[in-house]
Design a protein that fits this description.
By secondary structure, the chain is α/β, with parallel strands linked by helices. It contains ten helices and nine strands. It has helices spanning about 40-55, 70-85, 105-125, 140-145, 160, 180-195, 215-230, 245, 270-285, 295-300; strands spanning about 25-30, 60, 90-95, 130, 150-155, 165-170, 175-180, 200-205, 235. The chain has a seven-stranded parallel sheet, with helices on both faces. The longest helix is centred in the middle third of the chain and has 22 residues, at about 105-125.
Length: about 300
């Protein structure tokens, strides 16, 4: 696959990482998708929680300075713990806002300086850094992608979301070509390889899977399998359409917190099923750290 950059703005070619930007580098996990409502923040927060519960040091960055979904989730978590007198593990969290400088090149320089400075500090102090990117194409988002060790792209199980990854023939449902987001990831991978010889493990997870084996579901699955082989990503099981995920945002809790002392939430079968979905995702990610204590609990 190749990306034609001749008609695109220069900033698309200026988000390459610096080889010396991270010292004692943590493993960087980026949640990326140029579409809102795909489950990026929910996935990011539950990954943060399970890593924290395993004793890992976790830093987190919110690159969407406008919506701040991950930031709000963590703020809700901090407030809930203070109001209820319950101690829960917290990440070292920061939000980076877009520069308001009218000069685009200067704005990008400022954003890059903020991002790389924070990334370098968090890398020296943490085992993992989880980055939640905005659901749109921004310079900060591209910059974050270029530093990913693991890139997770959640998507809803529909051709609306699929279209951001690849264009499908409406008659045969065969993938004709990669789409804009896939092209951006491809460029990030090339820049990363040139910059420091690193690679990006790209994982696409299908969220909100229908329990019905509908024809559309099978078509999406077949299309993803073909596209995965073509442009190089892995498929991971995602999260089902479970009310429990949405209900936890106001409190800042996650499914990993429900067994903690002071968190008085009875476990239902839906909770157990959802926790197992988190386990399956983490197993698929195969992160460079042995995280088995909490995983064994999830199997019970």
């Amino acid at each position: 696959m190749s990306a034609d950059q001749t008609d695109q703005e220069p900033s698309r070619q200026e988000a390459a990482p610096l080889a010396d930007a991270t010292v004692n580098a943590a493993h960087v996990i980026v949640l990326g998708n140029e579409k809102g409502g795909s489950g990026k923040t929910t996935t990011a927060m539950h990954l943060i929680a399970i890593l924290l519960h395993e004793g890992a040091r976790v830093g987190s960055m919110d690159l969407d300075g406008r919506q701040r979904s991950l930031t709000r989730y963590i703020e809700n978590r901090r407030r809930w713990t203070e109001e209820n007198g319950v101690e829960l593990p917290m990440p070292d969290h920061h939000v980076i806002e877009r520069s308001d400088d009218e000069n685009r090149l200067e704005a990008e320089r400022i954003e890059r300086e903020m991002f790389e400075g924070l990334l370098k500090r968090l890398s020296a102090e943490n085992d993992f850094i989880v980055i939640d990117s905005p659901g749109s194409d921004t310079y900060l988002s591209r910059l974050g992608h270029s530093y990913a060790n693991t890139l997770i792209t959640p998507m809803n199980d529909s051709f609306v979301d699929f279209d951001l990854l690849g264009r499908v023939n409406p008659q045969t449902y065969k993938v004709e070509a990669p789409s804009l987001y896939s092209e951006m990831v491809w460029e990030s991978r090339k820049k990363r390889a040139v910059s420091d010889g690193g690679s990006i493990d790209w994982v696409v997870m299908r969220n909100r899977l229908s329990q019905l084996d509908a024809k559309n579901k099978r078509r999406v699955e077949k299309g993803l399998e073909g596209l995965a082989a073509r442009i190089g990503f892995r498929l991971a099981p995602g999260f089902g359409e479970r009310v429990i995920f949405r209900e936890m945002f106001p409190s800042g809790l996650t499914l990993l917190d429900l067994m903690e002392e002071g968190v008085d939430t009875p476990m239902s079968m839906s909770h157990v099923a959802a926790r197992n979905e988190i386990r399956s995702l983490l197993d698929t990610l195969d992160l460079p750290m042995v995280l088995r204590g909490e995983l064994e609990e999830l199997e019970d």
